[in-house]
Write a structure and sequence with these properties.
Arc Repressor Mutant, subunit A; Four Helix Bundle (Hemerythrin (Met), subunit A); mainly alpha; two-stranded antiparallel ribbon; 2 strands
Length: about 260
């Protein structure tokens, strides 16, 4: 017997399908645009006109506007009234603020995880370290964006350390801050393997021993030592950019 769907239910189902499709398209634009920002294919302060983004990725204006709005909320894109969108700028002051805030939040997340984590949390840490340890460390000078699997496994290991903190909000902020600091590393050409394997192995061991007074300082030192390298290189990058802008102004023809 044929089932007859009432018109109201049919139109509701069609509307839900259209909403789902629109959300999926916006997510696709968001992912591709964010990747280009993080990899610095789109450098800081690049203008992101809606038409430009539509042409670059082959999507319509509605999903593009939605994706840009999402990235504004995450701090990767800025919107200036009357001037449209652009890739967020960078500065030494912001990098210092980002790295300090990241350390504060990940200290809380690690302490909570060590207090609350069960056997499944411990197993996840061991598993992610094992997967990470099986990969060859990128050669000196290799950009991490050229070694996607290494980046993925390195991130998964650090995610596992704080996974049992009990707060999806805290995990979300930690993830966002990590992505922002990675963008600075790429901008300043300071991408490199995030510490020797034995350093990560020691992190794993002390975290599993659940002694926060040993584990927390070790994780903070792990981050801060790399951030100091990034900051030094970023200062040189920023000085070079400032010099280029000044030379460009001097060469500009008189009106």
């Amino acid at each position: 017997m044929e089932t007859i769907i009432p018109p109201t239910e049919r139109s509701s189902a069609q509307a839900s399908s259209r909403i789902g499709e629109a959300t999926s398209l916006a997510r696709a634009v968001y992912e591709r645009l964010k990747l280009d920002i993080l990899s610095t294919e789109l450098p800081p302060r690049t203008k992101l006109g809606v038409d430009f983004v539509c042409d670059r990725y082959g999507f319509g204006t509605s999903p593009v506007r939605e994706a840009l709005t999402l990235l504004v909320g995450e701090g990767f894109v800025t919107r200036i009234d009357g001037r449209g969108f652009s890739v967020a700028g960078v500065s030494v002051e912001e990098f210092i603020e980002l790295t300090e805030t990241r350390c504060w939040l990940e200290e809380i997340a690690l302490r909570k995880s060590m207090a609350n984590g069960g056997i499944d949390w411990e197993e996840r840490i061991v598993l992610e370290f094992h997967r990470f340890s099986r990969l060859s460390r990128p050669a000196p000078g290799t950009r991490l964006s050229q070694n996607v699997e290494w980046v993925k496994r390195h991130k998964a290991f650090h995610d596992a350390l704080i996974a049992a903190c009990g707060s999806r909000w805290l995990l979300g902020y930690c993830h966002q801050l990590r992505e922002q600091t990675y963008r600075y590393r790429r901008i300043s050409s300071a991408e490199r393997a995030g510490g020797a394997l034995n350093e990560h192995e020691r992190l794993m061991k002390v975290v599993l021993e659940r002694d926060p007074e040993v584990a927390v300082p070790l994780l903070m030192e792990h981050y801060r030592s790399r951030n100091e390298i990034t900051l030094a290189r970023f200062r040189r990058f920023e000085a070079g950019q400032t010099g280029q802008r000044r030379r460009g102004k001097r060469r500009a023809p008189a009106p």
